[in-house]
Amino acid sequence: MRAFNPAGVPGPFGSYSHGMEVESPMRLVFGAGQTGVDTDGRIGADIEEQSRLLWRNIDGVLAGAGMKISDIAQLTMLLVRREDLPTARAVREEYLDGHRPASTLQFVAGLAHPDWLIEVDFIAARPTS
Q1: Residue 21: what are its φ and ψ, rounded to 5°?
Q2: Hey, which end of the chain has fewer CB within 10 Å, N or C?
Q3: What span, in angstroms and rounded, lies between the C-alpha atoms of 41 and 14?
Q4: Is residue 25 reached through a cis peptide bond, with omega within 30 degrees of 0 on the bond before it?
């Protein structure tokens, strides 16, 4: 995979890349939206806990496919409250550890459960070797 930010396009407004080039042959994993819920179904108490649970869940989904967070090519983060962005972004940065996938951020009126504050879906790619 190759991250890129082409000339003639405004630079990224955060820690992401405008594009991720994926050359074949690659295995792709399309990750369903993950939320801040633990394996017992308990929802995290606040945005920080929900964000940490969410990223642990993403890590677990990727591990199930033999992949890592650094294999994420694209992700979409949905937040219910604008004031949660700094915390959600900080946790995201911790888990991405310098990786800069293509990314979209959306603020939404609500998610599938009324207590969920954040959801992230993703596409990951890894060589077939």
Answers
A1: -90, 130
A2: C
A3: 32
A4: yes
pTM of the prediction? 0.89
86: pLDDT strictly greater than 90: yes
The encoded tokens of residue 110 equal 């609500």
Go through the domains of the chain in sequence order and give each one's CATH number: 35-127 (3.30.1330.40)
Task: Evaluate if residue 50 carries a pLDDT over 90.
Answer: yes
CA-based nearest residue to 47, from 89, 87, 93: 87
Tell me the Ramachandran region of residue 8: left when phi exceeds 0, alpha when psi lies from -120 to 50, beta otherwise: left
Q: How far is residue 58 from each of residues 6, 8, 24, 68, 95, measured CA to CA in Å?
A: 29, 33, 23, 9, 10
